[in-house]
Amino acid sequence: MKFDPDRHHRRSIRLPGYDYGQPGAYFVTICTYRRECTLGVVRERKVLLSVSGNIVEQSWCALSDHFLFVELDTFVIMPNHLHGIIIVKDYDQKDALVLSNGTRPRSVGSVVQNFKSVSTRKVNQVFGKCGMTFWQRGYYERIVRDDTEWNSLRQYIASNPERWTNNE
User: Fold this and answer.
1) Residues 6+ apart with CB under 8 A from 27
2) Residues 6+ apart with CB under 8 A from 50
3) pLDDT (tens digit, 9 = 90+) per residue, 35-74?
4) Dist. CA 105–CA 118, nearest whole Å
5) H or E, element range at 43
C-alpha cells in the first residue's frame, strides 16, 4: 500500500514542550502487534500469563535494574497489552545507561523503546522467530499530575483484569 499522508498520519498525544525526561510519574500503555492476545488469558478475573507474558513481565521488572533513574509502580500485563506507571527519578548523568537511536536519552521514550526491544528479542529467541514484530508501533503515555490521579490510575490498572471481555 502506498503511503497516503491524509490516511497514514500519526498525531502526537504528547504535551507540547514538556520534557518527558524530567522527574515525575508517567502512565503508559503498550499494545501487542495487531492487539493479538499473546501474553496470556484472563480466567476468573485473573491474568494467567503465557510464556511470552512471563518474558514480558521479567523484562518490565528488570527496567529499574537497567535504568537507575527509573522506579516502577503498579502494572498489569493483560492478554494483548500492558499498563504501568513509570517513575522517573532525579538522577546523576553517570546513573543513566541508555542506548537510544534518536530517542531522547533518560526519557520515558527511551525506557519504553528499550523495554520493547529487549522483550521482543527474548520472545523471538524463545520461539525461534528472528525479526518478528511483537509490539505495536508507538505507545500511549500520560503524565501523572497529582496524587488523586495517581491513585485513580493505580485502581484502573489493578482492576483491569476484572473488566476484561476477551479483547478490550
Assistant:
1) 83, 84, 85, 141, 142, 144, 153
2) 38, 39, 40, 41
3) 999 999 999 999 999 999 999 999 999 999 999 899 999 9
4) 17
5) strand 40-43
Number of other residues whose CB lies within 10 A of the CB of residue 23: 11
What CATH code is assigned to 24-163? 3.30.70.1290
Angle 133-54-128 from CA coordinates, rounded to 5°: 45
Q: Whole-angstrom Cα distance, residue 8 to residue 95? A: 38
**Amino acid identity for residue 33 in this structure:** Y
In contact, 58 and 70? CB cutoff 8 Å: no
Rounded to two decimals, what is the model's pTM? 0.82
Write down the domain spans for the chain.
Answer: 24-163
The answer to whether 57 touches 49, Cβ cutoff 8 Å, is yes
